[in-house]
Design a protein that fits this description.
Structural class: alpha/beta
Bound molecules: ligand 26Q
Number of strands: 23
Helix content: 40-55%
Number of helices: 35
Shape: globular
Distance between the termini: 30 Å
Radius of gyration: 27 Å
Length: 839
Amino acid sequence: MSRTSPRTKNPLAEARDGDGPAGLLARYGCGPVKFTGNDDALYERRLVFDHVLDPADAGPRERFEAVASAIRDILSQHWVCTQREYDAKNPKQVYYLSMEFLIGRSLANNVINLALSPLVDAAAREKGLELAEILEQEPDAGLGNGGLGRLAACFIESMATMAIPAVGYGLRYDYGIFRQEIRDGSQVEQADHWLARPDPWEVQRPGETVNVPLGSRFEAHRGVITVHRGQPSHLLGIPHDRPVVGFGGRTINTLRLWQASTPDVFDFGEFSGGDFFGAVSDRILAETVSRVLYPDDSTPRGRSLRFVQEYFLVACSLADIVARFRRRGNDWSTLADKVAVQLNDTHPAMAVAELMRILLDGAKLGWDEAWDLTVRTLAYTNHTLLPEALEKWPVEMFEALIPRQLEIIYEINRRFLDTVRADHPGDDAKVARMSLVEETPSRQIRMANLAIVGTHSTNGVAAIHSQLLRTRTVADFATMFPERFSNKTNGVTPRRWLLLANPDLAALLTEAVGESWVTDLAMLRRIVPLADDSAFREKFLAAKRSAKARFVDWIKARDGVTLDPDSIFDTQIKRIHEYKRQLLNIIHVVIAYNRLRDNPSLDVSPRTYLFAGKAAPAYRLAKLIIKLINDVGSAVNRDPDMRGRLRVEFLPNYSVTLAERLIPASDVSEQISTAGYEASGTSSMKFMMNGALTVGTRDGATIEIAEEAGEENVFLFGLTAEQVAESRGWYDPRWHYEHESETRAALDLIFSGHFNRQEPRLFDPIRDALLAQGDYYLHLADLTSYAAAQARVCELYADRGAWGRKAIINVGSSGKFSSDRTIAEYAASIWKAVPVPIS
Ligand code: 26Q
């Protein structure tokens, strides 16, 4: 198709001009995406009709919108077909409730999953479009903080690929995770206005708006919410749907994101006394509910707006779920046979009380039936072991905003504690521990207790995590309800993280084992024997080299930094947190720096240490760690003696897109959390699939990575979780400082002001944390063992054949870590959901 053919044989174009919807669907059908050879007419149509623009005059952003809209046109019939099939067959539906969906970009992913790459490539060539430039126009949908949000995104992709009838529910934040700038080595947060331009993927559905009644009216002043009790108000939840394209393009599921608004301003008189300006400002206030993602991970803080956000997600989603259930003609008694709701951490745990409210007050069921249905419908995933990270909300917030739900929670608790007392007469301490209500120092609802009691399933996200959850974090509950607890080791989607992110390696794998690995990652086992085939090893190493070269070019264009692709790319990318121990990494870098300064002729493989990650804006020490990494980097990188030997880069603004580029280019994956603190970790899995070797502690999923690949193919080091727990009584970091010369030299150099001559006392809080306050995360305890593991890395890398062999074995052993495997486990043992393939 060319610019000179305004009228085409494209059935979609023809259908639009004449047919009703049935004809339109009939023409395009619901099978695999079909082409007439004229579909690329869609691109020009979009420029002309959406932008009223001569295609010749389109800029990169308009070209992106036109290409993305054309792809959406192609998938939209399939999207409708999928929903029609679900309505007709009335299967069990899975609903994934999450405050976060860290989606990243969608265009390239949708093109690959729709199997449209050949068509899009050909069309781009014909039209002279620079695809790479177009893809770079799409902002990341950064609607999450880190692992938990990215997991939700991988899960909905896997569910669509596996034809599981599923809907993801989340919030349509106007501002996602903040954009991180680095100024003078420090993190500066900037607003992420990702919706500044129209998003071509979302479909607003005002007709399905949900009304959310609240017990109070609230007002915002400088971000602080004042609650006016006894003045009921409403929020509206406006759905914005995004297609979730399964690989192969047959199933298109939905991610439904709620935007908060108020009823029409003209209906607002009853709340604002007919005050137009008051009504408008109330609308602005209401819209603040979905304005911004809370930029914290793992440390919940009692912010009332967050409370409203969580309830808003729950109320909108459950109203929608129940409406869909009833629309299909189902009887209430079949709720748990038709609906499975998965709660992504406790953030949506108010669903327990809200579903009870709907069943009691709406459906008029009795307590026992309502409770039975609620428990059998809901399931909960825990993502943390830190007791201080378990969510609690003040009773007063419930009283003010959702008093009926609080009443229900009290009744759940009364009945629950009666059974605890009956089982453990006189054990008041147990009753106090297990109560849904914490009494001191202030009355709060314990959301994890509510989630465990109010659901039929509680799972952890890696074997060790599930084990520690059962035996330490919530041991009383695991004893009382052993059948409710299970493990579901996390996974990641191989479509985005291998097929899309690493085209050279993906092509090599397809050449070696065929295409089946894309939806059956366990097939990669077949490459393990090829680890001993030198010709295959050469191709494998060449694929890694080309991913590195591609990354070097991309980061040069993005940040202006020049990296050496022949050095080891040693990468730690994740939120900055003490337990993740970026500090351990950078202290070891300083040890390596000292060794090279002391002994310039030292024979080591050149290494580039790459860091990326955001710190919660209020987490002072994490921000100081960023500053330290940058300051060490500046000194090392400007030292002429380090050139070609040691380099340190902190890459700003870690994002899904940066991860997609950097992970395929990495040789070493740093997974070095204090054992017992990282619930799972998922970047480790992406690195493994992309042929990086792991340096890691026996924590989270790293334990299972070592099981799959063989311990001899992973650089394990450090204390085990048991040893960490056991050392709590006697560990003294100063012993290491006093008895280990390299440890002392590195710390002395850091705290001497060598890396920050302008502000010599700047890093004192880090020194205090390590040496004065007991080094809670045991950096110094693991430092020598970590350095020894890094020495083994260095030695192995010098033997290219031996390195390639281990890397191939890792890729070949990564099958377990596909989110398809994880989802199959959730579907079989928690949801009892089966695939509904779209014919
Ligand atoms: C809660 C209340 C108020 C404000 C913020 C929060 C909040 C937000 C995000 C609490 C926690 C998070 C995110 C947690 C998270 O990402 N956890 C990670 O989950 C991954 C997926 O299971 C695991 O692999 C990681 O180990 C775990 O750290």
